[in-house]
Amino acid sequence: MSYKCSRCKRDVQLDEYGGVRCPYCGHRVLLKERSRDVKTVPVE
Amino acid sequence: MTEAYDVEFVERGDRNIRFLVRGVTPAFANGIRRAMVADVPTMAIDEVRFIENSSVMFDEQLALRLGLVPLTTPPEGEFAEDDVVTLSIDVEGPGTAYSGDLVTSDDLVRPADENVPIIKLKDGQRLEAEADAVLDRGKDHAKHQGGVAVGYRHLQRVTVGEDISEFEEQEAQIIRGVIEDDGELVLTSEFDHDLSERYPGKEVHVEDVPGAFVFHVETDGSFDATDLVTRAVDTIDSRAADLEEAVQL
Where is the DNA-directed RNA polymerase RpoA/D/Rpb3-type domain (chain B) (predicted)? Predict the structure, then answer.
């Protein structure tokens, strides 16, 4: 899963052992980036 | 509708017209009005594919805003109900994305106005999307409504009576629409909608002219207002023909 650290703005890869923490600066707030997929939305 | 009826223009612009129809029933007049609002097909964006949207608005909100942008609709017969025209937009902040930034794949279908704001973008935000426009009716969604301000009033006939007495104060007599004065059509806005302005010191009597309606038609820019009226009448005509066929079995 790819996230972005909210403090140092670096891309972060999380695995199941490390817990939710940025490996570069130790910040615990990570942001999930929008996926690169094209999103189709109907006008309603 | 077997009797003849005649049409006379009072005001005539591209998007805004006012005309008088004589010799029709109230039911027929209302039928035309309803057809102009709900039954004339117009192009509008129906599906949006977002490639990038880092703006502050949700994709769904932007899709709705794009859907409501009026698009020009080519003459009948150019497009079928399920034809698709693709429009694309690519704007990077800082700045505002306008309807004029939409690039069309078919020049017959393009935004009717260039200056409809879609979203404000801050530095580094970007909107990139593709949209499909389709033909449909106002019945199904308000974005397909070609006539946006459509209405009619009775033509009013004004007869001038006696002078009012010297010591009596004349009261304002407000009416709106179009009046007929000795066969001449006069917009009430010409005398500030107040009959006491036009006929000072006179008694004035106003009555509706039977079977005469003054239509005021305004379009969203999809087509000229005169086009809207003729296309509306055509839809009534074709639906009446369909009904006749269905009833005869």
Answer: 16-246
